[in-house]
Design a protein that fits this description.
It is a single chain. This protein is α+β, with helices and mostly antiparallel strands. The protein has a single domain, classed as Cytidine Deaminase, domain 2, CATH 3.40.140. 29% of the residues lie in helices and 21% in strands.
Length: 132
């Protein structure tokens, strides 16, 4: 991933964050997932009064990509409401690892610099198909 590609994904994740529906937590999250097809799939968190019905931005982006026929990814950018870059939850890391064992993850806050990491660094012992 080039710096320009990372910057472009962060811009898209920040835009997706603005569309989040988070009336309970007020924690807005946006994600921009780059597929190997070159398409950027955006997602935002959507909360629900029944908290179990809530879906995270990262999983929204993955579901959009898969529903569009893309199952291989190059990178994902995630922007949260935190003043500094925050990692995705374990549930989202597990879902992303289903499709990319070492996906580059770009973490950003609403403004400022971003940080590059990966699924492997954040979830080093993911449960995978061979564990079944």
């Amino acid at each position: 991933m080039t710096r320009a590609e990372c910057d472009a994904l962060v811009v898209r994740a920040r835009a997706a964050r603005q569309r989040a529906y988070a009336p309970y937590s007020k924690y807005l999250v946006g994600a921009a997932l780059l597929g190997v097809d070159g398409v950027i799939y955006e997602g935002c968190n959507v909360e629900n009064a029944s908290y179990g019905g809530t879906i995270c931005a990262e999983r929204t982006a993955v579901v959009r990509a898969v529903a569009s026929g893309c199952r291989e990814f190059r990178a994902i950018a995630i922007t949260t409401s935190s003043p500094k870059p925050a990692p995705p939850c374990g549930f989202c890391l597990q879902v992303m690892s289903e499709f990319a064992s070492d996906l580059p993850i770009i973490l950003s806050a609403p403004k400022g610099a971003w940080k590059l990491t990966s699924i492997r660094k954040l979830l080093p012992m993911a449960f995978v198909k061979k564990d079944l």
